[in-house]
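hey m, so remember when u said the C-alpha cells were messed up on ur end? i reran from scratch. heres the input so u can diff it against urs
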Amino acid sequence: MPPPQARLPWELEEEILTRLPTKFLVRFRTVCKQWNSLFNDRSFIYNHLFLPRPQFILLTKYTIYSIDITDPTMKLLERHTSRLGLSLHKANITTCDEFLFFNYHPWEEKTSLCNPWLRQVKWIKLVVDKHFDVFGLGYDNSRPEKVYKMLGYMRCPSKVQTNSYLQRVSMEVVDNVYKMLEYFRSPPEDQINCAFQTLRFIDTPDEDMPMSETAKSSHVSLNGNLYWIACNRQTREYFIQSFDFSSEIFKPVCLLPFQESSSCDEHVLAVFKGDRFSLLMQSYLTRKIEIWVTKRKIDDTEEVVWMNLMTLTATNLPKLFNKLYGVSYFVYDNTLVMCCGDDESGKPCIYIVKGDTCNKIHIGADRITWFTHCAYVPNWTSVPLEF
C-alpha cells in the first residue's frame, strides 16, 4: 500500500494562498471545498488586499484595461468584458470597496457594479425622473449584512441659470433645500429596479453638504461611506466631507492639513492601506507635490491626525491642475504612481515619482481618444446577486 500523501499544516497552506496572485486564486476555487470557503472568508480577503500592489483601471470607448506598474515598466492588460454589455464611453468610474462603480449620465437611467477580474457585473436600473443624478454608492456598515444604498440629487431645469437649480427635488418643494437618498434591494431577476416609492429625502442646507460635479467623479469609498474634498463657503477652509449611509447624514470629518494653499492648488483624496486616507497636494506655482496620510484608521472614535509622508520636487512633474479626465494615484513602497493626461497632448500617461526623479510612460497614445480611470486593488470578491 502506498504511503499517504504528506499534507502541509493548514496555517502554512493558508499563508501560501494569501501570497498568490489573484488570477490563480480565481481558478483554485474549484480545487476543494475548504479552499473555496477560505476565499470567501472576510479575514482572508482583507489579508490578501494588503499584499497586492494597487493597479489602475482605464476605460476607453471600447475596452477596459488594467495597468500594473513595476517601476520602471508598465503592463497593460485588456479585460475581456465585451459580453457584459457595459457602455464604456458613457461612464465615470469610482470604487465601492472591492467593486468598480459605473456611473452614467442621468438620461441613461442605470448604473452598475463590476468586478473586472471575475468578469461579473450587476446592473442597477433607475426607474426615476430623468433629471436624477447619481452621486455615489455605499452601504450601511452598522448591520451584519451589507445593505447597499445610493446617494443622488434631483435637478430643477427651470433654475439651471441660478445657484439653486440642484436644490429642489420635487414639484411640492419650493423653498427648502433637499438631497435624495435612494434605497434599493434586488428582485430575483438580474436587474435592480429603483422605484419612486423607495425614495427618501434628506432635508439639510446645501452649505452643510456640498456635492459638486468634481466631487461626484473624485469621491472615495471607505467602510461603506463616501468622502470627498469640500470648501466652506464662509471660512474658505478646505475639509473632508462625508456621507454616512448608516445614520443617513452628511458630516465634516476633518480639515485638510494645509490651509495656506492657493485655490489654484490641486488636491486629490485617496484611500491608503485600506483603512486610512492619503492626500495629494500640488502647488500651482512650483509644481511641488506633497503626500499626506492619516496616522490612524478612519472611524468615528479617533481624531484624524495627518502626517507628511513625502515631498516630491522633481523638475519634470506633470501639471495636475484642471486635467480633463482627472487624476488618480496610489502610494506604494515610498513611490507615488499617478495616472492622468499628458500636459501637451492630453493622452493618458503613467507617472512614477520617487525622490527627485519622475518617469513618464505613455499608454497607447495614438489609439486612445477618450478615457476615464481610477486606482483599484485586484480581488476575487463576487458581485452580490442580491442587495
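this time it looks ok to me. The first strand starts at residue 55 and ends at 59. if urs says something different then somethings off w ur setup not the seq
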